[in-house]
């Protein structure tokens, strides 16, 4: 029995689907099937029922799933203990980035790691707040940046900043937007995000005290797409203040003068892994870039409830 077989077993159980498990383990579906078959033969029990809806754990599989997950946790702890004995950190970190790399200071993070931990390889994977959080929970990412709150009990959160937000409209709309009442603003064409995006909740918070429903003309979860739609004169949207200022300098956007709630920028890791040396290095370097210094007796991560 090999650890990679147990990892495959747990991943297939979590996903309930061979194809998704193969994608997340960066291997092929036949390889995943072979791992499961070999493990079932060695253990002498059937772990899954193959159904049209996916892979379902058998009663035996459910019992062994808990034990396999526990073994993988112990293996992680052993690896962490070994890493802490080294003079130099060695390994890889997969970090999810939900917005512009420049905004979350990825170039500086890479430079600092290269200087202090040259044998750590950083992988930066573009995503969204709504995808980074579950990918951290599942172990597909070692850590992830995101906007807004996170309420998963298995995460530890480092809040980096409160990010100012503005309503941004096409430059040609300045006269009707700049001093508009909230009700008048609500009636204008809005570029919306999906409900899983934290900006969706922020927009609802803005208009919660007014009896108006925003006029939704488009949905776009990509910040690049939102900016492009504003440039094209399609509608208004919520953007970071630095984005709004840049669009004004370029002559393609204008800002509403009213107040908009800020949104938290945070970094998340699995709570059970937050003391691993590689994870601690990421927390320390990211925190330092945002003016959050940690020491031996300073707990900078907040356990999410």
Helix vs. strand class: alpha/beta
Q: What is the typical, i.e. mean, pLDDT?
A: 88
- Fraction of residues in H or I helices: 40-55%
By CATH, the topology of the largest domain is: D-Maltodextrin-Binding Protein, domain 2
CATH class of the largest domain: Alpha Beta
Strand order of the largest sheet: 4-3-5-12-6-13
Order of helices and strands: HHHEEHEHEHEEEHHEHEHEHEEHE
Q: What is the count of structural domains? A: 3
| Percent strand | 15-25%
Instruction: List low-pLDDT spans.
Output: 295-299
End-to-end distance: 36 Å
Which sheet architecture does the biggest sheet show? 6 strands, mixed
Number of DSSP strand runs: 13
Count helical runs: 12
CATH superfamily of the largest domain: Periplasmic binding protein-like II
**Which architecture name of the largest domain does CATH use?**
3-Layer(aba) Sandwich
Rg, nearest Å: 23 Å
Spatial shape: globular
Secondary structure layout plus pairing:
Layout: H1 3-15, H2 18-24, H3 29-43, E1 48-51, E2 54-57, H4 59-85, E3 91-97, H5 106-116, E4 120-126, H6 129-138, E5 143-147, E6 155-163, E7 165-170, H7 174-177, H8 182-187, E8 189-192, H9 198-207, E9 215-219, H10 223-231, E10 237-240, H11 241-249, E11 253-255, E12 263-270, H12 277-289, E13 302-303
């Amino acid at each position: 029995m090999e650890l990679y077989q147990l990892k495959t077993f747990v991943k297939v159980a979590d996903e309930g689907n061979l194809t998704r498990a193969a994608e997340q383990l960066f291997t092929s579906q036949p390889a995943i099937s072979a791992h499961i078959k070999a493990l079932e033969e060695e253990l002498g029990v059937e772990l899954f029922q193959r159904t049209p809806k996916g892979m379902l754990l058998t009663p035996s599989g459910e019992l062994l799933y808990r034990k396999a997950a526990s073994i993988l946790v112990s293996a992680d702890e052993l690896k962490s203990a070994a890493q802490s004995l080294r003079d130099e950190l060695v390994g890889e970190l997969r970090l999810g980035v939900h917005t512009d790399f420049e905004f979350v200071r990825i170039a500086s993070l890479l430079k600092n790691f290269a200087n202090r931990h040259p044998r750590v390889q950083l992988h930066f994977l573009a995503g969204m707040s709504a995808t980074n959080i579950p990918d951290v929970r599942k172990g597909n990412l070692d850590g992830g940046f995101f906007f807004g709150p996170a309420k998963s009990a298995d995460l530890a959160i480092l809040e980096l900043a409160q990010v100012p937000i503005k309503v941004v409209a096409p430059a040609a709309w300045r006269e009707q937007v700049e001093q508009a009442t909230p009700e008048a603003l609500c009636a204008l064409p809005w570029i919306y995000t999906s409900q899983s995006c934290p900006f969706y909740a922020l927009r609802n918070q803005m208009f919660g005290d007014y009896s108006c429903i925003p006029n939704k003309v488009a949905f776009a979860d990509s910040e690049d797409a939102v900016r492009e739609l504003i440039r094209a004169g399609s509608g208004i949207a919520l953007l970071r203040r630095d984005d709004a200022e840049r669009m004004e300098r370029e002559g393609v956007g204008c800002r509403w003068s009213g107040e908009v709630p800020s949104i938290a920028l945070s970094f998340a890791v699995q709570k059970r892994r937050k003391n691993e040396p590689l994870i601690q290095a990421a927390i320390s370097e990211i925190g330092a870039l945002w003016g959050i210094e940690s020491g031996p007796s300073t707990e900078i991560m907040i356990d999410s409830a």
